[in-house]
Amino acid sequence: MSGSGPKFVWVNGEVLPADAPHLPVTDRGFQLGDGIFETLRAKGGRCTELPEHVARLRRSAAGLAFELPQNVDAVLADGIARLLAAEGLDGPGADASVRITVSRGVWASRGLLPPRDVHLVPTIVVQAWPVEPPPAGHLEHGIALVASRIRRDPQNPIVTLKTTSRADYVYARIEARAAGADDALFLTTAGHLSESTTANVFLVRTAPDGVLELATPALDCAILPGTTRSWLLRWAASAGLRPFEGLLTPDELATADEAFLSSSVAGVLPVTRFNGHPIGAGVPGPWARRARADREAVFGRG
Ligand SMILES: Cc1ncc(COP(=O)(O)O)c(C=O)c1O
Description:
Number of domains: 2
CATH architecture of the largest domain: Alpha-Beta Barrel
Radius of gyration: 20 Å
Helix content: 25-40%
CATH superfamily of the largest domain: D-amino Acid Aminotransferase, subunit A, domain 2
Strand content: 25-35%
Bound molecules: pyridoxal-5'-phosphate
Distance between the termini: 33 Å
Number of strands: 15
C-alpha cells in the first residue's frame, strides 16, 4: 500500500502523474541519500520566504559539493506555480506544503565517490500537499518530547545541512513513538539542546537579571538554521522578549516557563512535556500562543 496523496509531481521541468515511474534506480538520491531538500508553505499559491529556502538549498548543495543550475530560483518558482495549479492548490484559501528535493543526479557506476570529470545533472523534484492542521490536542495540550539516544556532533560538517540522508531522524521519530512521545529532541555530544527531528526549539524563561527571554540553541549546536527560527528571533524583540542564542541544557528546558518548536509548515507548536515531565504549568503558555498566531499571520489569509 502506498497511501493516497497528490495527483501530480513536478520532475525536471515537467508536471507528471504522481503514480507514474519518475526516477531511475541509479539516482544517487535513492541509492545513497546524496541529495538535499527544502519544505515550505504556500498559501493562496504564494510561497512564504522562497528566497530564504532557495538560499539554504544552495548552501546545502555547496556543502555536498554539487552544483545547482544558475537559474534554480526561477526554475523552482515556475515548477512550484505549475504544480500548485495542477493540484488545485493555488486558489484563494488554498494552503500547501511544498517539498523541493534535489539529488546529485543519476550515475550508473557503483561507489560513493561522485565522478570528478563528468558533470552530473541534478534531479529536481517538487511535491505539494494540502497543509493538515495540527492534531487538535497538539495546540490545546502541547506536545511531548523525549531526548533521542542519537547525539549530534557540532563538529560534523554535514549535520547542519538539509540532506536527504535522514536515517538518524527516522530512528529518532521511532524512538519517540516507542516512548509515547510526539517527537524526539537531539542533544549535542556535549549534552546541550540541539533541535527536534523537523524543527528548532525555543524556551521562554526569566534570565537571572529578571528579563524575560526567548532562548534557542545557537547555530553551532548542530542545528539547521531554520527560517522560522530567524523570524522568531526578530519577532522576539518586537514582542518584548530578549532573544538569546547560546548553549542550553536539558535542565533549562525542564525548568523553562514555556517551550515551543518552530518550522515552516507546522509553524509554532507548544511543547509541554520533556522526558515524561511537565514543562512550566504543563499547558501551552501565552507566549507560545502569541508566537503561533503572529507567525500564522505572516502566511496571510491565502
Ligand atoms: C531538522 C530541522 N530543524 C529545523 C527545521 C526548521 O526549519 P524551517 O523553520 O526553515 O522550516 C527543520 C525544518 O524543515 C528541520 O528539518
